[in-house]
Specification:
AMP-bd_C_sf, ATP binding, globular, 6-stranded mixed β-sheet, o-succinylbenzoate-CoA ligase activity, Rossmann fold, alpha/beta, 3 domains
């Protein structure tokens, strides 16, 4: 058995009972005491249905208003909560439900049919969130956590292969929240807006920060740049977690303005970011802190600190205080695989053998500068090897995105008889933009070595992304058949 701590929501209900825990974008408010009471009622209902300590239960729901209380209820019931991606097909969901050995599936009403299709051949009991009884009578609930106990399982995004279930302990989530506060600071007036899905570790980690810190969060059903701007200007939001495509939309909506002084953090994750976008944010004096993390690290494990945000533009910062981060390379600025270790790093995947390596191999490539700041380059499996040279798609995408009229770019390798592989570019253009390949090629002459320049361009309406808004480069070639619009 490991170290035990009191249930974090109980503690906040005791110390901050009337403080707003969750504010919906429609103005509805839930205090910490109300959230604790509602979560316990749902936990009693779960116990009444047969959920016991260690039972694997799954959640398939959008950012529905009842989801936060259900997530906390699962911990009161002692269950292991499997969070499912709402964009998956029934076949993909069925694989995860069977792989995770789920016994109960809970869904929002809108996803009930998909859940039924996914679980029809599995020994699973399914209920909508609204069907959980609230009058099952009080029974024992878990009032403390063993930090070594598994709390959640989240599947990897599957950008490079079959997804695996990452097992997160209470301790992983606890240490992730604490390390983030030590890095970024914690202020009494902090309010964090949640616009990422809660089945994604980036969104889930904010919910954990709320109950560990006693911090108010504003909770959105779907991303909406107008509502986010209103929340920042009118409701005192100080932090927002986003990925690249979200930041671009927020900047477009903001125009030439900037955010008020109380706004102190735009936490940007999800992989390498085009440098022109970071420069654009810096011109607006928007505090963008690039961060590095993944499902296996319970969210961020390295984050750029506020004092270095402009001086180290493009860096993901240095490892959080309780984390260690190495680059498998011999010298500064040399690219190698990123290795991590720390109490927020998951020990293993479900139904997979645990690694005996001291550090977790992330599959990401990066380098450190002379001050130890990390720069993320790309995924190992996305690297293009052209004529014996390593070509990093993210580097090319960053340059392409700075060309006038290009909204976003995706790059992948395609077979080439002479060079083995060469880069192919897929571009999303602004409306009414006239494409001129010759102008693009002239633009790239002094920005990219010849072997890095795309050999072919495709104009597409959108790029393939997963539910975390990460670019899925392996799906890019399929766009050629879908749109057949080669330039």
């Amino acid at each position: 058995m490991g170290e035990k701590i009191p249930h974090w929501l109980d503690k906040q209900a005791e110390t901050n009972p009337n403080k707003t825990a969750i504010r919906q974008s429609d103005g509805e408010i839930v205090t910490f005491k109300e959230l604790r009471n509602e979560s316990r009622q749902i936990a009693y209902g779960l116990r009444g249905l047969g959920v016991r300590k260690g039972t694997h239960i799954a959640l398939l729901a959008e950012n529905h208003k009842e989801v936060p209380a259900f997530i906390h209820a699962s911990s009161y019931a002692g269950a292991v909560l499997v969070l499912l991606n709402t964009r998956l097909t029934p076949a993909e969901l069925a694989f995860q439900l069977e792989d995770a050995e789920v016994q109960f599936l809970f869904t929002s009403n809108s996803l009930k049919g998909r859940g039924e299709e996914a679980s029809q051949h599995l020994p699973i009991r399914q209920y909508s969130l609204e069907e959980i009884p609230r009058d099952a009578g009080e029974s024992d609930v878990e009032e403390e956590f063993d930090l070594d106990d598994v709390y959640t399982m989240m599947y990897t995004s599957g950008t490079t292969g079959n997804p695996k279930a990452v097992m997160h302990t209470y301790g992983n989530h606890w240490h992730s929240a604490i390390s983030s506060a030590l890095n970024m600071g914690l202020h009494e007036e902090d309010q964090w807006l949640v616009c990422l899905p809660l089945f994604h570790v980036g969104g889930f980690s904010i919910l954990m920060k709320s109950v560990v810190y006693g911090m108010t969060i504003e909770y959105m059903g779907t991303f909406d740049e107008k509502i986010i701007q209103e929340a920042i200007f009118e409701r005192g939001i100080t932090h927002v977690s986003v990925v690249t495509v979200m930041l671009r939309r927020l900047l477009d909506h903001l125009g030439e303005a900037s955010y008020p002084e109380h706004f102190r953090c735009m936490l940007l994750g999800g992989g390498p970011v085009p440098k022109p976008l970071l420069e654009r944010a810096a011109e607006r004096r928007i505090p963008v802190f690039q961060t590095y993390g993944m499902t296996e690290t319970s969210s961020q494990i390295a984050t750029l600190d506020p004092s270095s945000a402009l001086r180290k533009l493009g860096s993901a910062g240095r490892p959080l205080s309780t984390a260690q981060l190495l680059v498998d390379a011999e010298k500064e600025y040399e690219v190698g695989e990123i290795l991590v270790r720390g109490p927020m790093v998951s020990k293993k995947y479900y139904n997979r053998e645990a690694s005996d390596e001291a550090f977790f191999r992330t599959g990401d490539l990066g380098y450190k500068d002379e001050e130890g700041f990390l720069y993320v380059v790309d995924r190992v499996k996305d690297v293009i090897i052209s004529g014996g040279e390593n070509v990093y798609p993210a580097e090319i995408e960053s340059v392409l995105s700075s060309f006038p009229g290009v909204i976003e770019a995706g790059v992948t390798g395609i077979a080439n008889e002479k060079w083995g592989e060469v880069p192919a570019a897929f571009l999303v253009l602004e409306e009414h933009t006239l494409w001129n390949q010759e102008e693009m090629e002239r633009f790239l002459e002094d920005k990219l070595a010849k072997y890095k320049r795309p050999h072919v361009y495709h104009i597409v309406p959108e790029l393939p992304r997963n539910a975390s808004n990460k670019l899925v480069r392996r799906r890019l070639p399929s766009l050629v058949e879908e749109h057949k619009d080669e330039c």
